Description:
36% helix, eight-stranded antiparallel sheet, Copper Amine Oxidase, Chain A, domain 1, six-stranded mixed sheet, 2 domains
Amino acid sequence: MRFVFLLIFLAGSFLAQAGNSLSGLEKVLLFGKEYVRATEWAKANKIRLQWIVNERQLRATNAEARFLFEMDSRRVQFNGVNLILSFPVIFQKGTVFISAVDLKATLEPLLFPAREPDGSTVKVICLDPGHGGKDPGKLDGKNEEKKFTLLLAEQVEQLLTRAGFKVVQTRSRDHALELSDRSRIATKNNADLFVSLHYNAAPTRSVEGAEVYCLTPEGASSSNGGKSATAYPGHTQNAKSVLLAYQMQRSLVKSLKVEDRGVKRSQFVVLLDQKCPAILIEAGFMTSPTDSKRIYDPAYRKRMALAIIDGILAYKKEVER
């Protein structure tokens, strides 16, 4: 028993040290933001660095993780899934720099996933079908986003219930609901996860694919621009929210074979005040001929619901290990 306890203690100590590895690294100010040398961060976390395309693409690997960084870009791959960082990776005078915000808020939560306290489990899921009532959401001819987010939520709820989860929906019919009320419903019902369901639109019909959002880190701008984020209650859940977003994006792309538009960040109102891990899914573009055909197909909707369940289950397995 003492030996087992020692192993658990040492493993916990290692993860704590690894998760706090930034504290011992030198910060360099570049373009007004704090950056860390990739070589120092990699050494602290026993990560191997290798150029794939000299001075353009850098691969970082350990036993379980694989990053692929693009120089002077915010786009990075983690185990084959696209992530959009808050600030670009910088290559300057032969040295690669990664922003301290991205290391702390995005990369390290994926490298060293947060765990649920002993005995705690993910049981209650709050589903949030986007829009409703006088707010139709995105439009594609006579097709309204609010209709299809509700249909998807109903399908997901059925499957989650069969899997043993308790499910709460912010709305179960076509009625208006204030954005701030959606997070309050999750809190009132002691939700373990909040999943907001949406469909997208774009001026160009060729744009397609899925993307998953979690709350923009404090001090950073959202993936689609805008002012830097101030402190919100939802930031306390960042580590688990980004892990949930990654597992969800991974599942959608793998199961549905859709274009991977990445894990992104935004200051959506429904994410700001969440007291549990929270994400917003943009499950496809209603303006895309390819995506819209799928969105309106009940058989494909069930496949999408199954992919969402798989994302939740993958997250649950990770945090309950």
